[in-house]
Amino acid sequence: MMKHKVKFNDDSNIARVCRSGEVVEINPEHILVDIVSESACEACRAKSICSASEGKRKTLCIPRRESRQNLLPGDRVQVSMRMSTGLKAALLAYFLPAMVALAALLLLTEAGADELAAGAWSLGSLAVYYTALYMFRNKLNKQFTFSIEKID
Question: Which helix (H) or strand (E) element contains residue 33?
Fold first, then answer.
């Protein structure tokens, strides 16, 4: 049984990534939902002896404004987000930092810096990048929205 799936929203043909989970806590501002990320080898016969097949439990913090439903702790829910939003998150978290580090490394090496210094400054550029990302987290959180639906 695959819990991670892509579906198309009937009214707008927008691809969404969906996960099922369980509501663990509700407060006035957020709904906390536990989901289990399962690896791609769920159907493998050797999964019982393989550490790569372990699922990881993750907790999503979803703003209360995203749900108009009356949810209670323990309710089974489906959490979804636009596929384009997930791709944007991967771009910001993985691709752009790699490009920043590589560009810094190449520019410093071409400028004549020794390899150790270029490598250190390249890692420093990642610290600057992730600090800037952290500073804009509130603005980014508004762009990355989830929808949540109760599963009957």
Answer: strand 30-37
How far CA 122 is from CA of 54, 62, 132, in Å, comes to 34, 34, 16
pLDDT of residue 112: 94
**Residue 72 to residue 43: CA distance in whole angstroms:** 32
**Burial label, 107 (beta-carbon count in 10 A; 0-12, 13-18, 19+):** middle
Cα-Cα-Cα-Cα dihedral of 73, 75, 76, 82, to 10°? -70
SS3 100: helix
Find the angle CA(117)-CA(118)-CA(120) to the nearest 5 degrees: 65
Q: Estimate the share of the chain in helix, then strand, then coil, as percent rounded to the nearest 5.
A: 45, 30, 30
Looking at residue 2, its pLDDT comes to 41
DSSP-based three-state secondary structure for 141: helix
Task: Give DSSP secondary structure letters for 36-54.
Answer: EE--TTTT-TTGGG-GGG-
Instruction: Tell me if the pTM is above 0.70.
Output: no
Q: Which sequence spans correspond to the domains of the chain?
A: 5-150
Let me know: does 16 contact 82? Beta carbons within 8 Å.
yes
